[in-house]
Amino acid sequence: MTSTADGTGLDAVGTDIVGTDDVSLERELDQLLAVERFDPPPDFVSRWYRPADAAAAAADPPAFWAEQARTLLDWDTPFTTVLDDSNPPFYRWFTDGRLNVSANCLDRHVAAGRGDKVAIHWVGEEGERRRVTYSDLLADTQRLANGLKELGVGKGDVVGIFLPMIPEVAVAMLACARIGAVHNVVFGGFAPSAVRERMEVSDAKVLITVDGARRKGRTAPVKEAVDAELGDLKALEHIVVVRSTGIAAPIREGRDVWYHELLERADPVAPPEPLDAEHPLFILYSSGSTAKPKGILHTTGGYLTGATYTHRLVFDLDADSDVYWCSADVGWITGHSYIVYGPLSNGATSVMFEGAPDYPDRDIWWKIIEECKVTIFYTAPTAIRTCIKWGPQYPGRHDLSSLRLLGTVGEPINPKAWLWYHKVIGGGRCPIVDTWWQTETGAILISPLPGVTSTKPGSATTPLPGIFPALLSEDGQPVTEGTGVLVITKPWPSMLRTLYRDDERYVQTYFSRFGRDVYVVGDAARLDADGYFWIIGRIDDVINVSGHRLSTAEVESAIVSHELVAEAAVVAQSDEQTGQAIVAFVTLTGNQSGDDATIAELREHVATRIGKLARPKRVIWADDLPKTRSGKIMRRLLRDIAEGRELGDVTTLRDPDVVAALAGKVAQADADE
Ligand code: WTA
């Protein structure tokens, strides 16, 4: 590595906007903050964008989407009906068409002679490599599809998947898709009790999991932990266990089966089942405003159209030459759409990384980019902020010149992090796509198009063709410039279809505020004079920690399930690192007062109930919580207290002194820190 006089190591990154060696990175970024917009690099020409598309999409959205669905996907039975909007908000797309998602992700590429192409470059924690080709994936997917059938899984049955970042997770999803089973993937970082809840509410028949998972050099026994929580679930007939780490895993005769044994004995041929376009593809549980997670349901044809179209367009994918890497976990929607379905449907080559960004060292991501010659990199703002904290010397150790496009997702990106990403990682030459979307939307809806859209750091910019967002004021009036509630005014193919077994909650959550044909996103946003969207954040009781969605109610109910706790209220506080952080105001039973050990115990308790990501960053002991006279906790005031803001009107409170006492405590704690 060479290093510059200022110690930033920037010349090793090949950046083209460092003027001289003695300009410090910090100063440079501050100067760049004054740049309002970045025009597309003149030599970056979008492969897929045609100006005529935007016009066509605006003129006749269903016809535009029909065209995408026909050209991007292979159909067993072509559709004649494009959009059935006779019963909003229960929209149906391409209803009389039939197709199979796994055939679109695998068979068609193999049939076209691309079977030897690498689908997944897998990188293990200790540097192990696996090159999984399209033929490999197809072979395993067929065997697992037959294996699942042997275990009694049929069309419409739910299969749980609780796996780390290993290629088998893609096989598991695709095998379900092949036979019309509905997968329900649970993020590997969730606690087994959260897995249990998600399996129980979806009546999962089979769970595919792993012996153990590696994390930073240690191995955690997953199967054992799963057994302890899920052993007695009635509907769960079988557990399939992938041998990944070799750690001891209990196998219960008759119920459990090793993945490799199931594959070995299975018939190698499993023709893909032609499925109705509206056949359910997967359920993915996500946090909402109550403690009960929402089972977001996506279906076959519309979802795959959205994932395929957006992945190719937004990432300007050249399936022949790009090496694409999305650093998300497959347990989130980003992993579903942009690690598995979008890239595979487009026949791309992807990197899949098992490990953490700081193991064995903080340069592991950049090492992988250099070694695998990654061209497109997609990550979360929170990860970028962590890298900023670690310093530019880590990316500086590596040649990142293969990169040509960068993306972000999951939370608003602060301009400074955007600029650091642009400069230190992208060498000043890569367009950045700040992609806004949600589990519910299935695919990216608002994002710059590389080579087309001028970017403004911090703005997700403008909607993709065929997507119609708008801002409304509290009373439903359109906002053309300024802030408002973000809504989508026309259906799109990859939208959720309902909440699993809860149509009423679906209507109530998304389509009750402004009518049955207006999708309410749950975010507030600002629209500027150029028509650019700036996402502000959630307006419901959802907290976004490091791009992970958590509900305040879910965390509260985990805290109050601890025997020492009488009452708890959870709010978000802004955090430089994680975007938002969880602050818990907790009242202990019998007026006990808590100490540091109690805080540690509560945090651990939340980790075992939900997962580590839900642990409160801060616990504040409250003798009482601010409540209205009718007993409702005033979260707005707690948020003000947590942020150290001027407190608003407290006259409606039952006991106004409570707030002053808490505010005093928090101010004291802040001063101590
Ligand atoms: C937030 C993740 C700002 C937003 C794909 C949304 C963003 C929620 C962005 C969905 C972005 C996602 N800029 N905020 N580019 N992308 N969000 O369901 O609040 O895990 O409603 O889907 O993340 O989170 P989810």
Description:
The chain is of the alpha/beta class and 673 residues long. The protein contains 20 helices and 31 strands. A hairpin with a 7-residue loop joins strand 14 and strand 15. Helices cover 32% and strands 22% of the residues. It has an eight-stranded mixed sheet, with helices on both faces. A seven-stranded mixed sheet has the order 5-4-17-16-18-19-20, sandwiched between helices. It is globular, with a radius of gyration of 25 Å. The protein has two domains: 473 residues, ANL, N-terminal domain (Rossmann fold, 3-Layer(aba) Sandwich); 127 residues, ANL, C-terminal domain (GMP Synthetase, Chain A, domain 3, 2-Layer Sandwich). Helix 5 crosses helix 6 and helix 19 packs parallel to helix 20. The structure holds 5'-O-[(S)-ethoxy(hydroxy)phosphoryl]adenosine. 5'-O-[(S)-ethoxy(hydroxy)phosphoryl]adenosine binds next to helix 11, strand 20, strand 25 and strand 26. The site of 5'-O-[(S)-ethoxy(hydroxy)phosphoryl]adenosine has 22 residues, from helix 11, strand 20, strand 25 and strand 26.
Write a concise synopsis of the structure shown:
With 673 residues, the protein is an alpha/beta fold. The protein is 32% helix and 22% strand.
Helix and strand topology:
Layout: H1 25-32, H2 51-59, H3 61-72, E1 83-84, E2 92-93, E3 98-99, H4 101-114, E4 118-123, E5 129-133, H5 134-150, E6 158-161, H6 167-179, E7 182-185, H7 192-202, E8 206-210, E9 212-215, E10 218-221, H8 222-230, E11 238-242, E12 256-258, H9 259-265, E13 275-276, E14 280-286, E15 294-299, H10 300-314, E16 323-326, H11 333-345, E17 349-353, H12 364-372, E18 376-379, H13 381-390, H14 393-396, E19 405-409, H15 415-425, E20 432-435, E21 469-472, E22 478-479, E23 482-488, E24 498-499, H16 503-510, E25 519-527, E26 533-538, E27 542-545, E28 548-551, H17 552-560, E29 565-575, E30 579-588, H18 596-609, E31 618-621, H19 635-643, H20 657-672
Parallel strand pairs: 4-17, 6-7, 6-8, 7-14, 8-11, 11-12, 16-17, 16-18, 18-19, 19-20, 30-31
Antiparallel strand pairs: 1-2, 3-13, 4-5, 9-10, 14-15, 15-24, 21-22, 21-23, 23-25, 25-26, 27-28, 29-30
Helix pairs in contact: 2-3, 3-10, 4-5, 4-6, 4-11, 5-6, 5-9, 7-8, 10-11, 13-15, 19-20
The structure holds 5'-O-[(S)-ethoxy(hydroxy)phosphoryl]adenosine.
